[in-house]
Each structure stands twice: as C-alpha cells, then as structure tokens.
Design goal:
Length: 359
C-alpha cells in the first residue's frame, strides 16, 4: 500500500499502461508511449487481445475522447472546456500519462499566475553572481515539456490574467519560446503539446483572447447525459477513493448513491425527474465531483463514527454543504426542495428527517 495520499495517474495505473504498451502494435506519433488507439482504450477501458482488461477512467462519449487524442497528434493545443466538475482535470492527467508517461508537468492557473511561471524564472543567487546564463535559468513545466517533447498541462487557464495567457500564443503558433536575456530560444521537440482546462461558470474568470482561442482545438466535456451514467461514475470513483483513503466503511448502498445523484440532477436541471415540478436551482454547479465528495464524506462518518454502513444521517450534512453555498439564496432553494419534493417521496422520509435535523 502506498504511503502517498494520491498517486499520479502513471503510478496508479502503471500495470495497465505496461500491458497496453506490450499489446500495442499500431503506429505511434513521435515521442508517444502509446498509439492514439491505445490512449483511447486506456481512457475508456476495454479488453485487449491477450485477455487483459483495462479499466475505464472516463465514462462518456467515445467520440469526444477520440477528438481530444487526435488533436494531440497534430500541432494544435487541446482545450478541455466545461462547467466545473466535468472531469476536465481528470481527463487531462490521464491523457498526459498515456501519451508521454508523465502527467506532472503542470501549471496551476490562478489570479496570481505570472508570465515567469509560464515561461521561465531565474535562480537569483546565480543571476547576481554570474549574470544571465543557462545555469541561472529555472525552466517552467512548459519549457521542460518543449525540450523533452512531452505534454504540459495548464489547469484553469481562464483564471490566469489575460495578458499572461497570451504568453502562450508564440509557443502554440511558432513552437518556440524566446529567451531574450540569453539571446536564444527553446524550440519544441516533436511530441510536445499543451492541454489546458477552462470553465466559464466560476467567479474570477478571464475570457481567452480570440488569438489564443484560435490556437487551441476545444473539446467541451458535458455533464453526464443520463442518471445511470452519472451513478456509474460516482460508484466507480467512490470505490477507488475509498480504497485509497482506507475508509473503514462498507461500499455505499446503490440506493444512497442514486438519491444523491437524483437530487443533484433535479436541482441542476430545475425540475424533478418526471418533469412535473419546476424547481429553483442553487448558485453552485452541483457537479458529479461534488456528488462523489458527499458520498465519501458520508462513508468517513459511517466508518469512524457509526456502524460502518452509510445511511441518510451520514450523507445529510455533506448534502446540505454541497447545495447551500450562498447562506441566504441557496437556503431558500434547499428548503423549498425539501418540502415540495423530498418530503413527498415515501421512501425518502429518513433523508427528509436527517436533513431537517441539520437545518
């Protein structure tokens, strides 16, 4: 058992990647560890000719993943776009792990991300002692990816200030990164690409310039299209995270997972599952990732402070915390949903009581 809280994709699924490499005889682009076909199989799962079963990392449209992988085989960057919680970062990490065997060349976008963090920095002790030199240069993950012919990942691109975002234009169009201080440049090796993720729902979002958008192929990752698909995603991720965190609780009953997913979908869509009742939607996105978090929190409560079997008492607190982000507006939405929907469902009385006790 690993002592790390979270393994990188290439560590956690090293066996699957090795099996795919051995079974993969299709053409591979320069510096790719796997062929595009094998990368898609790694993401979506499948059975190899030797009988080995590859687990699914992403449950959703095969065509979307094929488009994403095909983009990486060209000279364009890949922009994974969608509302929060649609597995953009998850897909980005696994694409990088499958294509180049390394998912850690990562830049986390924030409002404070500077141009130096995207391009390169300096070791100031070396800089003051000897002036600008190769030894004083501190390469960014982007520069390292260019040198090695690997994939650089940029998370939350739209959180980075617009003038800093545009640093990427030269890199993506000319495949070169100038270093004016040294009178030189870094040219991208074959296999280099950029995977960026972005959403337009959170506060503090900076729109991408038209010039930058044109240098990316955009793939929109949607919210799961059906309740069955979303339940399958939640069950899979909860099981994986429960093992990784060693939670001392039984896997959650499918009934509890379905209830959480149904609540999220109804509030997200603004109507009940049967379409008969219109609902107000809360300010948050109520994503699949948040549903997973609610279930994991319930398992931790049941395992450490209960009998090890997750019930409505264990999920109520996490559920309320996920829905009520704005203490005024969202509280009204949640109270209305409890009284008009949850209370009226005969087999949800336990959940209604548990939620009422915590309000």
């Amino acid at each position: 058992m690993s002592t790390f809280l979270r393994l990188h994709a290439e560590q956690q699924y090293a066996e699957e990647l090795d099996e795919l490499r051995r079974a993969d005889s299709r053409p591979r682009p320069a510096n790719w560890q796997l062929s595009p076909w094998a990368v898609v199989t790694y993401l979506l799962g499948g059975r190899l000719d030797n009988g080995y079963t590859v687990s699914a990392k992403y449950i959703g449209s095969r065509r979307l993943i094929e488009i994403a992988v095909a983009t990486l085989a060209t000279d364009r960057g890949l922009l994974l776009f969608g509302v929060p919680g649609t597995a953009k970062s998850w897909v980005s990490e696994h694409l990088a792990a499958a294509v180049c065997g390394q998912s850690t060349l990562l830049i986390q976008g924030t409002a404070g991300t500077s141009e130096e963090q995207l391009r390169y920095g300096w070791n100031y002790a070396q800089l003051l002692a000897h002036g600008p030199s190769e030894n004083a240069l501190v390469p960014s993950p982007l520069m390292q990816a260019m040198k090695r012919g690997q994939i650089a990942r940029i998370e939350e691109l739209t959180r980075i200030p617009a003038d800093v975002q545009d640093t990427l234009i030269t890199v993506l169009s000319e495949k070169t990164l100038p270093i004016p201080e040294l009178g030189s440049e870094v040219q991208a090796s074959r296999g280099f690409s950029v995977i960026a993720t972005a959403n337009n729902r959170d506060k503090g979002v900076n729109e991408l310039s038209s010039a930058l958008k044109r240098r990316f192929n955009t793939v929109v990752l949607p919210v799961p299209s059906s309740e069955e698909e979303e339940v399958a995603i939640v069950v899979k991720r909860v099981a994986e995270m429960g093992r990784a965190l060693e939670l001392p609780a039984e896997p959650p009953a499918l009934k509890e997972v379905k209830r959480v997913v149904q609540i999220f979908r109804e509030l997200r869509n603004g109507q009940t599952e049967d379409g008969k009742t219109r609902l107000k939607s809360p300010s948050g996105t109520l994503s699949t990732a948040e549903a997973i978090s609610v279930i994991n929190n319930g398992m931790a409560l049941a395992g450490h402070f209960g009998d090890g079997v997750m019930g409505s008492q264990d999920i109520a607190s996490g559920l309320i915390g996920a829905v009520i982000k704005d203490p005024v507006q969202d509280a009204v939405v949640w109270n209305e949903y409890l009284e008009t929907v949850v209370k009226e469902r005969a087999d949800w009385k336990d959940l209604y009581r548990a939620c009422r006790e915590r309000l």
